[in-house]
Specification:
Helix content: 25-40%
CATH superfamily: P-loop containing nucleotide triphosphate hydrolases
Radius of gyration: 14 Å
Strand order of the largest sheet: 3-4-5-2-6-7-1-8
Strand content: 25-35%
Shape: globular
Number of helices: 4
């Protein structure tokens, strides 16, 4: 399913609608080039859960956990070339009793728990983003977004 976003607010709105159907234990991967809106997307989901904390990219800290209903974990694996067993031990607690959004998930290929939704963001032009959502649960996205690709 694809959406065109003309602003950060529209990107956050798409994330918020998706977030309404997520629960603790769900994993959402968020991919895209630098500056495509990955953290903006995660911020929109956090707002849906009543999280008012400043949501920032955890590139240098690797992960943030935001208390909410439910908690939201936000990982950024940009600096990883892969995830070793020892590194996974450090990351694993972020997945416990939380919805976990993982930026740059390619670094953890094969190590992540089952992914419920894959999000890809790309630049259409300097002010517009293409947001692509995929899930093995076809009814999930159709139920949220009415089954139609559109400009949000």
């Amino acid at each position: 399913m694809e959406f065109s976003s003309a602003s950060p607010a529209e990107t956050e709105a798409v994330a918020g609608r998706l977030a309404r159907e997520l629960a603790a234990g769900d994993v959402v991967t968020v991919s895209g080039e630098l500056g495509s809106g990955k953290t903006t997307f995660v911020r929109g989901a956090c707002r849906e859960f009543g999280i008012t904390a400043h949501v920032t990219s955890p590139t240098f800290t690797v992960g943030h956990r935001y208390p909410g209903d439910p908690d939201v974990s936000h990982l950024d694996l940009f600096r990883f070339q892969g995830v070793s067993a020892a590194e996974w031990g450090d990351l694993e607690p972020y997945f416990e009793d939380a919805i976990c959004f993982v930026e740059w998930p390619e670094a953890a290929a094969g190590a992540l728990p089952p992914v419920r939704v894959e999000v890809r963001l790309s630049h259409m032009d300097p002010t517009h983003r293409l947001i692509t959502l995929e899930s093995s649960e076809e009814a999930l996205l159709d139920g949220i977004f009415g089954g139609a690709d559109s400009r949000f």
